[in-house]
Amino acid sequence: MNVQTRHSLLSPFRVRAFLMQWPADLLTNVGIEMEVLILGWYVLVETQSVLLLTVFGALRYLGTLIAPLFGMAGDRLGHRNVLCVMRGTYAVLATGMTILGFAGFLGPIPIFIAATLAGLVRPSDLAMRNALVAVIMPGGQLMGAMGVARTTADFSRIFGPLMGAALIAVAGIGTAYLVIAACYGAGTILTGMGGGGLAHRRAAGVGNASFVQEVVEGVGFVWRTPCAHAGMWLAVLVNATVLPLTGGLMPYIARDVYHLDRIGLGVLAACFSVGSLIGSVSVSLVGQAMPAARVMLVSTLIWHVAVLLFVLMPNPTSGAVMLVASGICQSFCMVPLAVMLLRVSGEQYRGRVMGVRMFAIYGLPMGLLLAGVLIEHVGFTVMAVGYCVAGFVAAAAILGWWWRAVWPLGAQGNAAR
How many helices (H) and strands (E) are present in the chain, helices listed first? Predict the structure, then answer.
């Protein structure tokens, strides 16, 4: 790695607020990934129902319906302030689960209640951290900084599932949740220590309109901005089609398709994240040279093909290889998408647009719930192939419909600014 490459990877850390934000995001994400794996496996084993597994996965995204409100609050109260309150909520809920785990009272009902409460807040975490990076980083470093910031999710998805599987097997669910609560607590403290005056203040240009009016303004901005409009539909699409297959359904795939245990599940999840990490680092290195809209669309098409090959693989080894490829495609889709939205929205609409962006995540619980029903009626393979083919066709349709806004190098969606 040459000096210029090292510089492009490390330059965001010269901003003190980013230097504190990166480990805060990492610890929070590790806690999330450990929790998702532990509880997903627990629900599947205890209930023996893939439908309840998909319901559990869907509850985690319940708050997508109110995500724009968090975006408005970030614009008004400061993104870092709102993020601290959100992460403090995770820590409190995890502490409660720790107590139940040690007391022997943890079961499906408390898990579903906790998933519902956390699901009201957690879907907005990504929008808040993206908006925060856009506030604290100079515009010319945004693409590189977003790629580096995304590595926190990638690292956590590699080590979080493996740590969660190992802890639950060796020490039990109480100890595992104690570690999760500690991760959330430390993440909250580091988030608050980030400094960065702008990240604590009201965004410029934000008025005193009602939350409902500001949500309408955010939706209106997306609607009249073609590249943002295309990006939102693309986000809905990938959340509904490919992400259920590499996320919420992974416990089912590991146990019922590949006949693996919890450790095998952790390894499969880590393989996807290794690919995502490779993609995130690559995006941060390429930086401003990438036409964001064009890259995200091409990557989406390839992503659907990679996931299709994954579900058709005959064994976990070949499946793991395709999971790595899928993870790479995910980063080359999602990072340019976020950067494109942040660039076109500007400071005035940043929180609102990222809040509206979180509406797209609602495609994930809908995709999960539908997948659970389809698996019971037509089987996993038919469902998975149908998802991938339908997603590929829909992505191609988005590219064709918004061609002028997302494909030419001079289009607004590809502008580097």
Answer: 20, 0
Mean pLDDT for 101-115 is: 88
- Cα–Cα distance, 386 to 378 (Å, whole number): 11
- The pLDDT of residue 3 is 44
Query: Which tokens hold the place of 363?
Result: 């495609």
Say if residues 332 and 296 touch (Cβ distance below 8 Å).
Answer: yes
2 lies in a domain?
no
| Mean per-residue pLDDT over the chain, rounded | 83
Given a cut of 50, is residue 4 above it in pLDDT?
A: no
User: Do the domain assignments include residue 27?
Assistant: yes
What residues contact residue 80 under an 8 Å CB cut-off, 6+ apart? 132, 191, 192, 194, 196, 199, 200
Token output for 385: 């192939």
pLDDT, tens digit, 9 for 90 and up, residues 51-88:
888 888 788 877 777 766 776 777 777 778 888 999 99
Give CA–CA dist 90/53, Å, rounded: 21
Instruction: Write down the pLDDT at residue 405.
Output: 85
- Rounded to 5°, the CA angle 91-95-96 comes to 120
| Domains of the chain: total | 1
Cα angle 141, 234, 123 (rounded to 5 degrees) comes to 75
Structural domain contains residue 287: yes
Q: Cα(238)–Cα(304) distance, rounded to whole angstroms? A: 9
Q: Which residues contact 20 (CB under 8 A, 6 or more apart)?
A: 190, 191, 193, 194, 195
Q: Are 124 and 65 in contact (CB under 8 A)?
A: no
Q: Is the pLDDT of residue 321 over 60?
A: yes
Short-list 119, 122, 126, 128, CA closest to 72: 128
9 in a domain, yes or no? no
Q: What is the dihedral of CA 331, 335, 337, 340, to 10 degrees?
A: -150
pLDDT digits (tens, 9 = 90+) for 249-276: 888 888 888 898 878 888 888 888 889 8
Go through the chain and tell me how many residues it has: 417
Looking at the chain, the whole-number percentage of residues with pLDDT higher than 70 is: 87
Q: Which two tokens stand for residue 60?
A: 């985690």
Average pLDDT over residues 148-173: 81
* Residue 230's CATH number: 1.20.1250.20
Structural domain boundaries enclosing 54: 16-414
- Pull the structure tokens for residue 383: 């469902």
